[in-house]
Design a protein that fits this description.
heterotetramer, A mainly alpha (225), B mainly alpha (314), C mainly alpha (486), D mainly alpha (673), C: 486 residues, mainly alpha, two-stranded antiparallel ribbon, D: 673 residues, two-stranded antiparallel sheet, 25 helices
Chain lengths: 225, 314, 486, 673
Amino acid sequence: MNIESQDFYTQAILSMSALVGLTSFLMLGQGRLLRLIFVFALQGLLLTLTTGLSAYSLDNPHLYISAVLTFSLKVIFIPWMLQKQVLEMNMHRDVEALKNNTAVMLGGASLMVFSYYVLQPIIHTSSMIMLNALAVSLSVVLLGLLLMISHRQAVAHVVGFMSIENGLFFAAIVATNGMPMVVELGVAFDVLVAAILFGIFFLHIRISIDSLDVDLMNKLHEVDK
Amino acid sequence: MNGLMAVVQTALFVALSPLLMGFLKFCKCWLQNRRAPSFLQPYRDLLKLTYKQPVISQEASWLFCVAPYLIFTAMILAASVVPFIAVDQPTSAEADVIVLVGFFAFARFFLALAGLDIGTAFGGMGSSREMTISSLAEPAMLMAVFTLTMTASTTNLSGAIEHVLQEGLILRPSFVFALFALILVTMAETGRIPVDNPTTHLELTMIHEAMILEYSGRHLALIEWASALKLMLYGVLISNIFFPWGIAESFTLSALGYGLLAILGKLVFLCIFLALAETAVAKMRLFRVQEYLGFAYLLGVLGMLSHIILESTR
Amino acid sequence: MIAVYSLLLLSAASIVFFALSGHKENMGKFNTRINGVSLVITIILAMTVFNQGTLLSSGKAFLIDSFNVYLIVLTAFVGFTTSLFSEAYMAHEIELGKLTQARLKLYYSMYQGFMLAMYLVLTTNNMGIMWVAMEGATLTTVLLVSLYRTPESIEAAWKYFILCGVGIAQALFGTILLYYAASQIGGSDNALLWSVLHEHATELNPDILEIAFVFLLIGYGTKMGLVPLHNWLPDAHSEGPTPMSAVLSGLLLNDALYAVIRNKMLIDGATQTHIAGYLMMGFGLVSFLVAVLFLHRQKDIKRLFSYSSIEHIGLMTFAFGIGGSLATFAGLLHMTVHSLVKSAIFVTVGHASQISGTQKMTGIRGLMKTQPKVGWGLLVGTLAIAGFPPFGVFTSEFLVFLATMHEYPWLTPFLLLGIGIAFAGLFRHVQPMVYGAKPEDKTAINANLMPIMVHLGLALWLGIAIPSFLSSWFSQATLLISGSAL
Amino acid sequence: MLFLAYSAVIFSFASGSIALVHVFKPEVHQQWVFWLLGLSGFAAILAGVGGLITSQTYLDTLNLGLPWLPWHIHFDSLSALFYLIIGIAVFSISFYAPHYTHAMQKDAQGFAVLSLFTGVFIGGMLLVLLADDAFMFMIAWELMSVASYFLVAFDHENSANRRAAFLYLLMAEVGALLIILAFGVMASFASDFTFDALRASHLSTMWMSVAFILALMGFGMKAGLVPIHVWLPEAHPVAPSHISALMSGVMLKVAIYGLIRFCFDLLPEVHWEWGVVLMVIGTLSAVSGILYAMMQQNLKRLLAYSSVENIGIIVMVLGLSMIFLANNYPELAALGLLAALLHAFNHALFKNLLFLGAGIIHHQTHELNIDMLGGLIKRMPKTSFLFLIGCMSISSLPLFNGFVSEWLAFQTALRVDVLDNGVLRSLIPVSAAALALTAALAAACFVNVFGLTFLGVPRSRHAEKAKEINDKSMLAAPAMLAGFCFFFGIFPSSILHLIDNVAKQLIGSNLPAQSVLSFFSIAPLSAQQASYSPPLILVGALMAAGVCFWVLHRKLKTSVRIAPTWDCGFGGLTPRMQYTSSAFTMPLRRIFSPAFLIEETIEKTMRSHTQTNVEQVRYSLHIQDHSWIHLYQPVEHGVNRVAKQVGRIQTGNIRTYLGYSLATLILLLWVVS
């Protein structure tokens, strides 16, 4: 298919998805926590825009609600909370030295390609857009996972976790124009609770190991040293 | 009639066994240029012993006193099974060759226990060695005997002997092996040189004597007689299994006479052979006995295999 | 249907109640009573289903069929007996000063929260809600895992949280794909209702559903603790309070498996292949064999039995993966007996570690002498879980083996090998704990051994003879799942 | 008949449960436990005899187990025979146990545990015999194992016992799994798990052989065949003596029952190669079993090893029977089966007798090391007499039951010349000779046992102080068994007739027509070929003994003089000068040294500075089983090693774990697409 023949909405969605993917990459390569959080907020914003867009173009009122939810959670609340944590711990200065950053980047890229490859069969059932959108969201999920694997800071893990959520949400929007309302609400609630719990946990972890470096939490294992 | 016959034959068997002993002693002395006691010396010894007052250790238990009778009885039963002068006597139907071995085992069992009863080192030593040797000898003997019984396809002794008789003189390699195996076993089981020395009282060498060291009087007499019987049994076994000719197949007087003469003749030859062997070879160390008996066992197996592979008609 | 609503409302209400209630002494009793009531409700529910067959609520929000109804009863039952146990247990912890009243409040309200989540997972008809509830289960229990606030417990909770969170997220992706596939065939809002999907299963796009199933399997599989996604499980079980371990092993694993099976039924409908089955079999067997080996290396008693949970969940997954009526029946039976026996074991383990004041197995000795009932409970429970007759575990394992023998004979040696090694692994640790002379400084504690006896008794009953109503139930469920009657 | 069979089971369970009740309600009379046990035994005997006489198959189904596979029950001659065996044992135990358990029980719990699991154990064994489908069979089988495990672990404060119990249960589990697998192999070719269906299954020869090997390993594990026997001498001795008696005398027979049921009944056909396997393993077990037995000092351990020997003999003869069956000589096969089953029966009798005797000795002297005993024949005359009978039976002396079965075994082996196959024709005689060797060694071994335990001078204070047991009923049990040993030694035909029915049922053929099983003599094949008439021998023996006794005592009345033992004039004979068991068996140990792992050390400490004369000598002898080092330990280490390797995957680092889940995801996605 060629992009020209598509209507504006589709083009917009496609470019949005491209942007979302890009933000994931930015997060992946990001060593500084504050920037990481900022990029995450950015991704949330993009998500909100996408939601709003599809809500507008398909005039599907309940998507507005989810847009609002997303905005308040992913753009305002969580970044704010994380930033607060970082400042309290004053970790905003130290850069997490990512080992072989390029390798991680390459890995991310290959994951993206892989997700296209995996979702290839969908093309039989629907359009190229779907493939594209779903592939991007899948790769966002995978990249989020990769982010968690490559970063050692608990904060980064939370960001990764949330960006996975973003990926899912994005998929839900573009592929199926949002989930049923009740599910949306449930998911949002879960995310909220999760965020609060993360806050609590940062507290506990700091008390227990006086740091947020997850690599220091390896007391429970099966390897006899 | 037959029953009586059997009893008489057994009695004769028992009665003649000391004579065999005596004759063997005679041959040995004669071979070793010594003046020999008369054939009847064993009888005299037995008589003397029966009249002497038995002395029993205070540690002895009832088993010690009972054992001689049991041993002697077992030997008599064995004697009643082995065809001596005539075949197919009724008593030989009550037990076959395996039971015969069983009788020997029975006697040995109690002899060994009696050895342990007093609680002296000698007795223990004797029992230990006796059991060791016999447990090696028994398989060898059974192998040898099985060769015969499989040829005759019966484990019943008189049946087997009759079978050999009917076949007439056939030179079977298996029998040659079996014969030698049985002779070796005989030497071991009856406590002859080279395995044991019946005349020694040197603790390092004695086996049979060590066990009966505490016996005296009539008990000793019974045991001595029993060992004489054992020797006789083996002798008769060998001579009647492998050279059955002359044994009485019917209960006519002449046949029986011939039978008696025949068996006595065979035994004489056997005694001479035994005496020669005992004079020729030296007693061996205890821990070379297993090689000796292993050889006997090997012969037995060879006999068996040669029977199975060469002879049995298939 | 009233029953379902009341069940959910009851637990929901009691969460709030416990959260707000002042420092009551008898919270434990109250908790027990609530669970008792919900048990009664579920039994009524079961009866109605037994008489009327499948129930579908107006609006199709809730679906009660022969498959989930007995799981609901089981959940309520284990929840009830465990709460009995946790009364004594928690009281003792308070005495030792390990916990404050505030924490106790949290504990009880979260306990109810967990129950709510479990009921919701089982009763709902909406795959999305099922996901939400499953996530909810994580969220409610994660704070309980770190209840003691020790570094280990916090570490465990964190791992539990992150790993399960990520895993469950993948499940959501799978659900979205499912929804997408449904919307392909013109499904609207009710396109996530299981009942609807199951009707139209054959029309769904197989390619999408295969991919969806991978995500769902990995997502819910993380909750089930399938190797290699299991790593959170032993930590969480060993560090949390023991009653929590009991319900986690006894219920959470079952319900995650339940979710997977529900999805599998859709996938099988769509892709007329056995791909889902193969995936499950592979996962199951690997988990089974690996967990079995882990048993040999344990030092902590609760870790030991959590690995045995992994082993058994692996076996169940394997059984359901085989498909076919016999294997499915075996799987259902195994779900039941395993959660009965395993929760009983955790109860005894809790008492044992309280008696000895440690969870290190080297510190636990001579239970038979110190407190015979606990010792016997642990020993007999271990025998039962190791698959010795006449306990039900043997029956189900026997059936799994039988099914395997029919379908994939070359796999049976692995199963038996695994069972043998598992037995050795369990017993080499358990026997020294129960037997031996009485340690001087250890004394008996006041323990509520009712749950143990009831659970083991039931397991015994199931082993000797399966009651007709239960067997007919299982048969219906089997028919529902495997599509073929026994 | 089934009623009796059931009631035996029910009584045994009842006795167990009464014991349980006794804990909570101490007023319940303990004696009930044993009365019920006795009833159970008696019912089992009746059922057994009845089943053998009628020699019918009684079928039934109990509405237990799985909804579509209820418990199938059958009670045929084979079950009946083993019912009889168990019955006799249990009946005798019920006399023995009360006093014994009363002496050894520490608290109410102890008593409850002991009696409860005794009841369950017996019930389990009986159920195994009744089972007619694999599922029930396995349940009963495992019930038996688990219950006996608790009995082995009864005295669990001793760590060695705990270890033994663990080993025991582990082996039982492994064996059970193998048996399940064996059944599974057959069932995968059959419609379901009932024995009828299994009989009807059509297997290829290959699969049949697989099933056979699995079954052999499974049942052999329980029966204690070499080389997988190591658990047996560990576990049997540490249980209370009457339990050791049950385990060694009866439970092993149940394993044999399983083997016979599987090979001769369930498997559609037999192959002579299997027979050879059985024969070789049996011979191996027989010889090495008795050799190891001889090296033991602990009496019960010794008896346990000798069980290995006897099981070996049974299996070997079974092999013979199988060979003859496969070469379609059903009559000879019947003879072999007869010999094997009779030996199983006899072994149950005398092994129980010996274990109960050992129990009495332990009860009176608190000593089981035969090097510490001695001289008991004067202190415990009754016990010693009974024990002597046991020893004579087990070392297969004529006039006792042990001899009859070995005689039959020889008769079977000697019929080899009917076979065509050269391998068999040369192999069987050798194994027959090995059987002879075993018998002779057994005699040596039990001379050693009886001589050191009962004869000579006491070697320790315990033995010095020993007294005859005053509890009549505790003596009654071994007395009864001894009576049986003698009776069946003199009138073997009485039991042979019954066992013949079993052969008829399994092989479909009796002994040959011209065989004689009369009251006076038995001739399994024909009177010409071989005959054995113990009654006549007994009469002859009595006559002969009578005569010489009369001659020596009535005629010449010389009194006996009692004198101290002659000490060669050195003086000071001490008990320590007697032969010990390690001394007694030294020649055989040296001759058969390759069979053992021997560590023999002699340390001399010389008297100070002048290194001339010895102050003291320390002699230590440690003998170990080959298969422990070469079979068991490697497996154990292997498992641990693998577990260690697998443990590496759980590093404790959460990022690694996340990596796993990513990897899994990618892998699976790649798989599906």
